[in-house]
Design brief:
By secondary structure, the chain is mostly helical. It has helices at 25-32, 37-50, 52-65. It has one domain (11-69). The protein has three helices and no strands. InterPro entries: Phageshock_PspC_N.
Length: 69
């Protein structure tokens, strides 16, 4: 017996332009991983306080490279 799969699950990481605060990076990450937006935003603020340069550069690079949904 052969089974054919006719389904595909494609989740792409993209900025969320509907629920954005700055550029939509945190909202897009939250949507991709099925997390609450507030959790991702609080984690981003905590990372920004802890590692300001690395987090700032990562956020800017992500906002430039992630496509808009």
């Amino acid at each position: 017996m052969r089974y054919q799969h006719s389904y595909s699950i494609e989740k792409t990481l993209a900025k969320d332009s509907i629920h954005k605060k700055l550029s939509g990076v945190c909202a897009g990450i939250a949507k991709h991983y099925d997390l609450p937006r507030i959790v991702v935003r609080v984690a981003a603020i905590f990372a920004l306080i802890t590692f300001p340069v690395a987090t700032g550069v990562a956020y800017i690079v992500a906002s430039l490279l992630m496509p808009t949904r």
